[in-house]
Specification:
Organism: Allium sativum (Garlic)
Radius of gyration: 20 Å
CATH class of the largest domain: Mainly Beta
CATH topology of the largest domain: Agglutinin, subunit A
Protein name: Lectin related protein
Largest sheet: 5 strands, mixed
Shape: elongated
CATH architecture of the largest domain: Orthogonal Prism
Number of strands: 28
Distance between the termini: 10 Å
Number of helices: 0
CATH superfamily of the largest domain: Bulb-type lectin domain
Strand order of the largest sheet: 1-3-8-9-10
Amino acid sequence: AILAILASTCMARNVLTTGETLHAGEHLDIGQYTLSMRYDCNLVLYENSNPLWASNTQYEENVVCQVVLRKDGILVVSYVGSEADYPVWWSSNDRLDSGNYALVLHEDGNLVIYGTDIWSTGTAKISAGGPVDGGSAIGPATGNQNVTAIPNTWRSVLKSGEQLSSEQFLNTQQFKLIAQEDCNLVLYEYNIVIWASNTVVGAHAGCRAAMQVDGNFVIYFNLHAIWSSHTDRENGNYVLVLQQDGNVVIYGPDVWSTGTHVKSGGGRAVVTAMNGTVGGRGSVNQKHVTAIRKVGTSALLEF
């Protein structure tokens, strides 16, 4: 399969979707956190300049490496050879169903894989001026309604327990998903509407769009649900992502994480990541190897 290369943009990016690749020197970042695919083949998560987690795949000699999120939900760091790519680290030995997954670097420093997709607006790569589709019909209120508004900063992800209040939005590149004050949830490409929930109530209606812990995305007017994605299922960690291609997608639940989220009280525990990689404040593991090898697992990862 042809893999999409993560393009450099002037806007920060914190999401990698199925088939996308970070090459050496490329990164995801949000706030003070950066996930960097380094030139020495080490995948490192930083808080400012402090490493929190690493794949520990650093090599003495110059090699060409990349990290890709595969369609089976596994994140793989590979050495790029002249005839084939050789995996040197992967997030799990357990293959999931083939589908669309998302790797999200969160504002709290946690790096999480979600999948598969359970709903979308279907607006990927749609041309400006395309049809406006209301999506799902009015749905019931479901799940825990104890949600919090997101901060007024740039972001493209809404996670379980968060909501868009009136006039708040997600944005990336030329796309913006906004909870308008008239209660309509609208996706714009520049100033052109390409999707809407078609839930206009009236001016200053005071509505909110909540990503619930049961995977359902719901628009509420007062305490009444007037639209939903109809994706309610078992409680878990879900994310609504406004992607760079203009598609709005719900992924979940989570299938893997680095466990590097900020602890309450401002502290941070040293974490042990999957495959035995240890992260925390301090230097990245400087252990060098002289040959390509599999890290932290004995199973052969087939492509």
